[in-house]
Amino acid sequence: MSVSYELRGAGMFFGPAEVLHGITLTFDQPQMVALTGPNGAGKSTLLNIMAGLRAGFTGRCLLNGRDIDQWPRKAFAREVALVPQSLKLDFPFTAEQVVLMGRTPYAGGLFESPEDWAAVARAMELTDTLEFRARDFRALSGGERQRVALARALAQEPRALLLDEPTTFLDLQHQLTIYELLRRLSREGLLVIAVTHDLNLAAAYSD
């Protein structure tokens, strides 16, 4: 079963400034969508509304026909994963431990299950991060951290993946690799929505 997103007249004010106005969109099938626009256009705000992280917006945002603020958080996190533009941690977690955090929506006890570790291994293999699984996340380069953040989201095994500038810190090779992966995941049944400034990548890979 595919996931369905619907925005009905969604808008957002930051003080007197109207950042978004009357956004009406429907995503009701697995596909890869690029959200593009200039700085300050409201792309990240829109993504955060869809991720359930931005309160106080006008209009409605529905996931599978249900307003997102009515979803239990754990159930929502099994449907939707977000890859932020940057991920900062202040404690000495390894890359593998960060990816394991993506399994939180499935936690049912004190210890990780074999399914959790299998999902972590798959996600790190897909994102080419296994080689530094034991390294301190804080010591990784910006591009390496971004790939670990994507692995963490994939470990959630969501049906919708929201990404905010997922290739900002990546070299050209990894930019292409990540977008090829995202397009493949969308062909395999995942709804992928990515904010990007790169019109070439958007045109080459999105539906």
What does this structure look like?
By secondary structure, the chain is of the alpha/beta class. It is 34% helix and 23% strand. It contains seven helices and eight strands; from the N terminus they run βββαββαβαααβαβα. Helix 4 (114-126) packs across helix 5. The longest helix has 16 residues, at 172-187. It is globular. The model has no long low-confidence stretch (mean pLDDT 92).
Short description:
With 207 residues, this protein is α/β, with parallel strands linked by helices.
Helix count from the secondary structure assignment: 7
Order of strands across the main sheet:
2-1-4-5
What is the C-alpha radius of gyration, as a whole number of Å?
Answer: 17 Å
Q: What is the strand content?
A: 15-25%
Reported for the largest beta sheet, the result is: 4 strands, antiparallel
Total DSSP E strands: 8
Contiguous uncertain segments of 5+ residues: none
- Fraction of residues in helix: 25-40%
Gap between N and C termini: 20 Å
H-E order: EEEHEEHEHHHEHEH
The class by helix and strand makeup works out as alpha/beta
Mean pLDDT figure: 92
Morphology: globular
Keywords:
about 210 residues; alpha/beta; four-stranded antiparallel sheet; four-stranded parallel sheet; 7 helices; globular
